[in-house]
Amino acid sequence: MQRATPALSRRLRLFGAAISIGAASMFASLPAFARGPEGIADTAEKVIDAVVNISTSQTVEAKGGGGGGGGAMPQLPPGSPFEEFFDDFFKNRRGPGGGKGGDKGSDLQPRKTNSLGSGFIIDTAGIVVTNNHVIADADEINVILNDGTKIKAELVGVDKKTDLAVLKFKPPRELTAVKFGDSDKLRLGEWVIAIGNPFSLGGSVTAGIVSAKNRDISQGPYDSYIQTDASINRGNSGGPLFNLDGEVVGVNTLIISPTGGSIGLGFAVPSKTVAGVVDQLQKFGELRRGWLGVRIQQVTDEIAESLNIKPARGALVAGVDDKGPAKPAGIEPGDVVVKFDGKDVKDPKDLSRIVADTAVGKEVDVTVIRKGNEETKRVTLGRLEDNEKVQQANAKPNDPPAEKLVTQKALGLDLAALSKDLRTKYKIKDSVKGVIVTGVDNGSDAAEKRLSAGDVIVEVAQEAVSSGADIKKRVDQLKKDGKKSVLLLVSNGEGELRFVALSVQ
Predict the structure, then answer these.
(1) Nearest CA among 263, 347, 282 for reference residue 312
(2) To 10 degrees, the CA torsion angle through 203, 172, 160, 257?
(3) 444 is a catalytic site residue
(4) CB of 132 within 8 A of CB of 287?
(5) Is 66 exposed, middle or buried (0-12, 13-18, 19+ CB in 10 A)?
(6) Is 25 a known active-site residue?
(7) 126, 168 in Cβ contact below 8 A?
């Protein structure tokens, strides 16, 4: 047995060598594209000097614990083995006399925090693009060039809705700048390169493919991300995503990861969006987005069937601002916008992005479908204000109204005429007209569509209603006509409108 061991080992080594040689031959015979395109190294070499690291510092006030310490002591479970260690550590930091209630001034000393991100130079005059979240609330911003040169930078402007920022610094020497490419021309599976400062490892180059385009991950009103499997990690934020021509096609902004590291789900703001934002930030120091003055919602299959729109598409106008550009142009609730300024509108997100990207004051044609027919309206766009309206939830007191309720049953809803007592109970504005919902059957389509007591039905199938009997009569007629669903225009107490399609079966 002992003599057999060397021979066996020798055979295994020879077998392993045969496998290695075979594998090497196999990989050598594979085409070049199986290892990735040859141009990655050339592209990276050409653009890497235009990629910078962003270093920021921020002064924050220390928050003392209950006894006043030189910083906030971590909250630990009672009896934790670390409790005694941290207690001693924080007491020692207080210095002589610390912890005895004497030197409170030294207990709450401000401290500085630092963070790192990425960016890229788009102009040799020293213009840098990065993410807003990289530099947000910073007291000091520094740009670190690829050769290690560190220069203080100034903030030109930010746009929180797209998470972009523009910086400016004084060039110490001749710089390398990169240009924006056309992100609309990207193809699924196309190779892209990410360069940045992941985990403070500046100048890191990773490559991957475009996994998806126009990805909406509910991060903001203008979501249209490029998804890539190129490795993007913390610190890559604000860095460029290049195509193989060395053009910036995106700004790496976020990842989805349960661990904090790359799992192949990285997202970049497309260059088409970035270029427009950067241009405005350089010109005005702020964003001046177009404003149509409408509230919109998705055209579901049920709503499309009710409005005779095939296939389901566009953005349904649920409300029109009295002071907005849409009202004088003749756009009304119930219209479905299918084209804006010559561009097709597939869904509400499409319309939001197109309107925002259109110049303030521009006259545009807006194509809507109204009662099955296409109409074109001429609109002069206004400017979208940044202050966002805060919606107050309707209070619903439990006190019953003084008068006796007379209700009508339809569509799984208890319906009643609006009265003074009901307006008071559900806080319905006097300007709101229609039939109030006083109850919703559990398990009904209305409950599933989140109709609730206090909602007011303004229209049924685009006809105004004033009583429960009106609604029941209209629904019965739709059943006779063979309709599968009915379209309701519903208002909350504040007068905010939305459309809801309910089954009539």
Answers:
(1) 347
(2) 10
(3) no
(4) no
(5) exposed
(6) no
(7) yes
- Cα of first residue to Cα of last residue in the chain, in angstroms, is 83
Out of 107, 159, 163, 341, the active site residue is: 163
- For residue 473, give both structure tokens: 């009569």
Burial class (CB in 10 A: 0-12, 13-18, 19+), 84: exposed
Q: Which of 107, 118, 133, 262 is catalytic?
A: 133
Overall pTM > 0.70: no
Asked if 184 is an active-site residue, the reply is no
Quick one: tokens of 261?
A: 């590291």
HSE of 314 in the Cβ direction (CA atoms, 13 Å)?
A: 24
**221/204 Cα distance (integer angstroms):** 31
Q: How far apart are CA 361 and CA 350, in angstroms?
A: 20
Torsion of CA 200, 202, 207, 212, to 10 degrees: 60
Instruction: Yes or no: say if 365 and 346 are a contact pair by the CB < 8 Å rule.
Output: no
* One-letter identity of residue 236: N
Tens digits of pLDDT across the chain (505 residues): 443 434 434 333 432 333 344 444 444 444 444 456 888 999 999 999 999 999 998 876 655 544 444 444 444 444 444 444 445 444 444 444 444 444 444 455 666 667 789 999 999 999 999 999 999 988 899 999 999 999 999 999 999 999 999 999 999 999 999 999 999 999 999 999 999 999 888 889 999 999 999 888 777 777 789 999 999 998 999 999 999 999 999 999 998 887 778 888 999 999 999 999 999 999 999 888 999 999 999 998 888 888 888 888 999 998 899 889 999 999 999 999 999 999 999 989 889 889 988 989 999 999 999 988 899 999 999 998 865 433 333 334 444 444 556 778 888 898 988 888 888 888 898 889 999 998 888 888 888 888 888 999 999 888 888 888 888 888 888 888 888 888 899 999 888 888 988 887 7
